[in-house]
């Protein structure tokens, strides 16, 4: 079939042509937006799940929903060992620029931009050349910095004051501000504490600013370790693989727009291959479309295309992550894979490798920092990537 008309989109964070199976989360966020619009207190929202389940897609969709309501929005992607001070400043600068043309008091906006500039400049300066890129952003704000507000150098104090002031600007317009944070589990521990404290202050004052985060399954534990009240501070939504009906919709709706169909047997085969994971659904469907000679797409077409789809996943989805690991970290992951696909005890990994658990801590911690595994609960580890164990078991020793 014509590859130019291929509707499927297996890209990182790329919205699929049919966002199936996420109606509950979209409705939850619609309620959040409506409550904030009515001046009612509402918790910020956090979406968690494995890689490839569509967290970034959902986060971007939430942001689009806020923009449609004329909210000011900004987005950051957290990175390990990088303070969120400057990324948050840049994101809120974007949000306020969206609101500024509608604000009746230019002086009010100018004052807030001065606070924002002071906040951005109050953080520590880079001490080494290696860290310089993380601090390179400078606020393109042509107003003098406001002294004495959000510029103490203590991120918790400064972020709280900044959020309160940003919410005040939004209140003047009768709208909200949304700060969207991807890879939220990578925020440094001290910054997580500051972010939670700032959100806690907003929850008490009812200010129309919300933080919407997305991260790996252990993100709630990261937040809880920072502030005990974070369990009540955020509305958590765990997303996972699609059920059969939703996976079929993700395939059929885009195909029908191109006047292409699938046989029931083909849908059976695709669901078995992709296991309902949204990224895999798109990856298999894209290759199948390109290789199928005509409509309807059959189970035979799936069988022919599956090896090529799996080869592409092995290189782009699994292999690129595997290559980031050190030899010791690869040994640790291979041991995990031999123990199965469910979360495994760290003691069992040590037994598999014939080592003491304490000697494997550097490898385990390195894998967690790289986002390849996570601590499912105390003493247990699991892969952040679905089917990663299967991929590792297929590799030569």
From TrEMBL:
The keyword Magnesium does not apply. The keyword Aminoacyl-tRNA synthetase does not apply. InterPro entries: AAA_16, Cyt_c-like_dom, P-loop_NTPase. Coiled coil: none annotated. Residues 171-322 form the Cytochrome c domain. It holds the Pfam family AAA_16. One of its GO terms (molecular function) is metal ion binding. Keywords: Heme, Iron, Metal-binding. Residues 1-20 are annotated as: Disordered. This is AAA ATPase-like protein. It comes from Actinocorallia herbida.
